[in-house]
Each structure stands twice: as structure tokens, then as C-alpha cells.
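Q: Predict the assembly, please.
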Amino acid sequence: MLGLYIDRNSAIHALAPGVKMLALALSALALIAVDNWRVLAAVLTAVLGLFAVARLPAREVVAQLRPVLFLALFFFAVHALLVSWQSGLVTVLRFTILVSLAVGITLTTRVSHMVDALESGLRPLRFIGVNPAKISLMISLAIRFVPLLVDLVREIRAAQQARGLERSVTAVAVPLIVKTLRMASVLTDAIEARGYDPD
Amino acid sequence: MIELIQVSHRYGDHPVLRDVSLSITERRVAVVGANGSGKSTFARLLNGLVIPDEGTVTVDGLDTRTDGKAVRRKVGFVFQDPDTQIVYPTVEEDIAFGLKNLKLDKAEIARRVAGVLDRYGLTEHRTRSAHLLSGGQKQLLAICSVLVMEPAYVVFDEPTTLLDLRNKRKIVEIVAGLPQTAIFISHDLDLLGGFDRVLVFDGGRVVADDCPGPAIARYIELMN
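A: Predicted assembly structure:
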């Protein structure tokens, strides 16, 4: 989700973001009903085929899926030990299919398009006081600021290590909170200065 | 024209601007002053991000107190740290953010985004994550995101502070080439030679208002 979009001219890129997100949600529901590992393996193969249809570079796809595979192996080991290897395989395949679909959407959809689709989808909730524009901005800001906050934590930790405070959580948390609040204050001004009006 | 009439402002008990009256008609106006001298508050007054406790600020006749939204359409604002003003994860999405707020149609947004990316050499980075850009490129993106809205005035609040000399010069070159009125807050005195007018702030007041040579000399005198 962190701005990983890869620009390509493909049918999957051209699909409406709302359709892709709906497909993901429906797939999640459908996968619960399937407990045959052979069927799930076939589905996973088809999903991986979609990456080729989307003309995404294999290296990028592997980079996105690699951390998930370690988690999948862990799930498999736990299930195999406690239940059976078939149950482990079913769980891992369901999980990998869903994550692959989500990665596929992330790599083929601009964040702004996803956010716009979400905003449209939430519009019917206006009558119960939900403001879709505020929610969509909140999501795009979260996506934008995660890597920034990771860098900030790294920077503060390095500064505190240089002062010999290697194990102090407070020494990292306090400056992090202060800096984040300052950043949020300027960001609010910046958003306002660019004419943002959620109503 | 931007006009300030008897403007005073304080944060809590601390006065930051005292009875400032001036009008801006020149195309290139620089503002210098020590930390805490009131220059950043002055900058924020110009597009209504700060409303003065006393006095009025008007932009082409629009009062920042009552016409905030209209004023912000006229006055763009570039902040010191681009990381705190880039809203969307990728370059072209962030540039489009302000245009969506202007309720422009998709074709016009695409046209303007492509135009500004091309003009400032960011086309090859258009789908890149803003987080992965260099400091200079991020500031360039922040400037593009403001310029694409085509404001009549642009306030730059210390945009060169975090940059190396090459990027500082590049930003000043961009400012020099703008068709808009630019108000440029800075500590980099060597970059202000080409400006039409320099305001020197000290203790919340304008203590010098002149062309660059004499104004900068007065500022240096104040700092000694």
C-alpha cells in the first residue's frame, strides 16, 4: 500500500479500483468455503498468472511476497503440528491467495484512485454522519506517513544510541511523539493552504 | 496587492508581531530576521493560516478574517520541510491534490499536472513514491504542488533551509522565473541579491524595508 504502484498498460491496470477491491472482498468470502488444497493451489496458480497479465516485473512481485512467505511457513508448521499437514496447506494457500490479490491491487492501482473509490463507496454512509472525504484523506495520509515515521524512529534511535540510551523505550517514544505532533500541526496547515474542504 | 494594516499578533502572552503596516506590490519580496522575530507568523498571515489578533490583512481586497478560502486560492504557500506538506504517496498524485480541491475536471487536472511536471523536470519521477525522492526533488515537488494551482501570490517560508547550495540556487532560479508575486522568507542572505525589496523583522516589527543592499546590511548590523 505504501505507494508501490507500477505503471503498465494492462487490462488489470485499467480495471476500476472499486471492482478490484470488491473482487478482493468477495474472494475472501469465497475462500472460506473452499477447503480442498488442490483447488486452492489451482486458484493460487491462476492468481499468480494475473501478475503476468498485469506485466508486473517478477522481481518486484517476489519482493512484495517474500516476507509473507515466511509467515505462511510459520502458519503451516503450527497447523501441521497441531492439526494436520492438509489443514496447514489449506490455511497457507488461503492466506497466500489473499495476500497475492492484495499485492496485485497495490501494484496495479494508484493510491489516489483507491482512495477515490473508497470515498465513493462510503458516500451512502453520509446519512449516519460519516464523512467519506475525511476518511479517504486519513487513509492516504496514513499510507504516505508510514515510511516517514519509520525513518523518524530510525533517526531518533540512532541519536539515542549515540548518547548511550540503547535500551530506553522512553528515550525513543518521547521525541517521537513530540516530533510527530509538530509534523501533524504543519501538515494541517499545509492541507488547509492547498484548499482542502471535506464538505 | 497584499496589505497589512496595524497588524499585531501574540501567542499566549508572547507578542510576535507588533503594529505592522505595509503593502506588497513588488514581484519579488524577501523577508529576513532572526529566529523568533515574527517572520514566519507574518508569512502565515498572508494566506490566512494565522488570523491577526488586531488589524487586518487583505489580498486583492479580500480580508483573510472573513474570506479565508478565497484568500488561500490566491496565495499559495510553500513550507520549509517538504516532508510535512506532501500529502499523497506518489509525485503526480500529490500534485493533483490541490487541483481536486479546486473541483477541476479530470482532463484539466491531468493537463495541469503534466504541464508542471514537464516545466520543472519531474516527468520521469511522476509515478515514484515521494518518500524515495532526494531532498531537492521533494522541495521541487512541494513547489510544483503549489504552483499547479496557479495562485496569484506564492509565499515561500524558508524553502532553502534544508537544501544544499545547488538546490538552494535552483529554488531561487525558479522563484526568479515565476510570473506570480513571490514573498520569500529566508536566512540565506546571499540568495537575495535579485529581489526587488527586502523586509527585515526584529522583535515583531519591520525595522528595515529597502532594496537588498541596505536592508541586508541593516540585518547584519542587528545580528552583530
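Chain B has one domain: 2-223. The first strand of chain B starts at residue 2 and ends at 11.
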